[in-house]
Specification:
It is built from 8 helices and no strands. With about 180 residues, it is mostly helical. It is globular. Helix 1 crosses helix 2, helix 2 packs across helix 5 and helix 6 packs across helix 8. Helices cover about 80% and strands about 0% of the residues. About 20% of the residues are buried.
């Protein structure tokens, strides 16, 4: 985040309803919260809707937040609850229509794990954007889209060894950047 004085200005701006406060937190939190939602619903449009609606709820309750931790916690919990409601509705429709029951892990450990994974993926995404073009495309497929080496090679019309070499190159380039963020 920003330095303490600037950060506090954004918190105050957000609480007062100023667009700059909302814009700051939206830009800082949208991607990790989107990744978090996507882990549950596995659908881009649904995840985007859930996150957008959660930001609206956050904005409507903006006066109760005194710091980023409370704001972020509320946002993640709001997204989590919306994802669970969506999955329960989907399950009820499936049971009604075809007697197929969709299981979802809703344990607290899973919730925390998914927040950590979303934040990590967001940081990895930022670091990946700084890689050379070919390496960036390969890393995106492997780590953001979670494709296998073989799938990536087939999609990109490259050999498996090329994918592995680019992956190793990317890891070598990312390692110094990520070790400073995740000591």
């Amino acid at each position: 985040m920003l330095k303490t004085s600037s950060y506090l200005d954004y918190v105050q701006a957000f609480r007062k309803g100023e667009p700059s406060g909302f814009e700051y937190f939206f830009n800082a939190l949208y991607k990790p919260v989107y990744f978090f939602a996507f882990r549950y619903v596995n659908d881009k449009a649904t995840a985007e809707d859930i996150v957008s609606n959660s930001f609206i709820r956050l904005w409507n309750k903006r006066t109760i937040f005194e710091n980023e931790a409370g704001l972020k916690g509320y946002l993640y919990k709001s997204v989590y609850n919306a994802c669970i409601r969506h999955l329960q509705q989907k399950q009820n429709r499936s049971i009604h229509n075809s007697s197929y029951a969709y299981q979802v892990d809703t344990t607290e450990q899973s919730y925390i794990h998914n927040i950590i994974k979303s934040e990590t993926i967001h940081q990895l995404h930022i670091a990946i954007t700084q890689l050379p073009a070919q390496c960036r495309k390969i890393f995106t497929k492997l780590y953001i889209e979670e494709k296998s080496v073989a799938e990536t090679a087939q999609e990109m019309n490259l050999t498996v060894s090329t994918i592995k070499n680019q992956k190793a190159r990317g890891i070598k380039l990312l390692k110094p950047k990520l070790t400073t963020q995740f000591p």
